[in-house]
Amino acid sequence: MMSEQQKGIIFAATSYLLWGILPFYWRLIGGIGAYEILAHRIIWSFVFMVILIVALGKTTALKVQTLQLLTNKKAAISLFVAGVVIAFNWGLFIWAVANHHVLQASLGYYINPLMSILLGMIFMKERFSRVEWTAIILAALGVLYMALSIGEIPYISLLLAVSFALYGLIKKNVKMDAMFTILLECLATLPFALAGIWYLKAVGMSSFGYNKDSGILLFSGILTAIPLILFTAGARRIPLSLIGFLQYIAPTLMFIQGVFLYNEAFSMTHLITFACIWLGLIIYSCAKYQQYRTQRRLSA
User: Fold this and answer.
1) Confidence (pTM)
2) Which of 45, 139, 144, 255 yields a CA-CA distance of 20 to 30 A from 36?
3) Is the pLDDT of residue 131 over 90?
4) How far apart, in whole angstroms, are the C-alpha atoms of residue 275 and residue 98?
5) What's the confidence (pLDDT) of residue 118?
6) Three-state secondary structure string covering the chain
7) Transmembrane region positions (predicted)?
């Protein structure tokens, strides 16, 4: 039987694999603006979660946990803030992909684990061995080198990194079923999404209708909700620092798409950054594996 930590690693890793292929999906929707895509993403994610919860017979549990949440003001506010933060992250990412900044988005999600590690140290009191610190420093140097080589502050990258790291921290402290938190997060921003769609329709700027792009966009709810469910389930079972390094899966897939699929520039700067980050990841993974073997040996 798998331990809770092993389940957490599988859940989190799968969520990052799915997130890693999202640039390809968003690039398929070329005829709809970034804000309209974001609004529909929120709406269809909410619809999908309602259907899923009803199909699984979890409506009673949803009512019970929602009532419990409403009695805890801090948790309710945290969930609302999580909904706003993740909506901002979605919107910025969609805009970046649509405007040929896939490598900037990739850099953002390379920086993101470092932000998660920092938050883990500050708020969760997580500590690291010398080997783990070596891995963290290598990854940080790689990201810093790329940032300095660009010649300007990479605002897109930093905003993506900070917003998703904050989202991960907030979700780790909300004790509620993963599916329910996704539904309520979407509900928190649903009025803004509906208002935005209404406005775009009213001024004749909406592109959603009977066309291929709109048909593809209908699947955004599924492709949004499933990785978030997996991420939430994983985040509760493993340390925030380990989540941070698993997150390198997604930006690596984005990086590959940006260079080989969308022909964005691949320079020596990218090569050095990539090498530093993956060397750090290998060192950290080896240290964690050794630690896991030692714990199992002591348990036996």
Assistant:
1) 0.83
2) 255
3) no
4) 27
5) 77
6) CCCHHHHHHHHHHHHHHHHHCHHHHHHHCCCCCHHHHHHHHHHHHHHHHHHHHHHCCCHHHHHHHHHHHHCCHHHHHHHHHHHHHHHHHHHHHHHHHHCCCHHHHHHHHHHHHHHHHHHHHHHCCCCCCHHHHHHHHHHHHHHHHHHHHHCCCCHHHHHHHHHHHHHHHHHHCCCCCHHHHHHHHHHHHHHHHHHHHHHHHHCCCCCCCCCHHHHHHCCHHHHHHHHHHHHHHHHCCCCHHHHHHHCCHHHHHHHHHHHHHCCCCCCHHHHHHHHHHHHHHHHHHHHHHHHHHHHHHHHC
7) 9-26, 38-56, 76-95, 107-124, 131-147, 153-170, 182-200, 215-235, 242-262, 268-287
List, for residues 155-182, the tens digit of each pLDDT value: 898 899 889 889 888 887 788 887 898 8
Instruction: Confirm if 164 and 72 have CB atoms less than 8 A apart.
Output: no
Total residues belonging to the chain: 300
Structure tokens at 169: 């921290």
Rounded to an integer, what distance in angstroms lies between the CA atom of residue 229 and that of residue 234? Answer: 9
Q: Which residues contact 263 (CB under 8 A, 6 or more apart)?
A: none
How far apart are alpha carbons 256 and 278 in whole angstroms? 14
Among 11, 2, 8, 16, CA closest to 246: 16
Q: What angle do CA 27, 28, 30 make, to 5 degrees?
A: 75
Distant-in-sequence, close-in-space partners of 224: CB < 8 Å, separation ≥ 6: 41, 44, 45, 48, 90
Q: Where are the domains of the chain?
A: 4-299
Does residue 25 carry a pLDDT above 70? yes
Give 195-229 pLDDT, tens digit per residue. Answer: 999 999 999 999 988 889 999 999 999 998 888 88
Please check the confidence at residue 240 and state whether its pLDDT lies above 70: no
Whole-number pLDDT of residue 282: 79
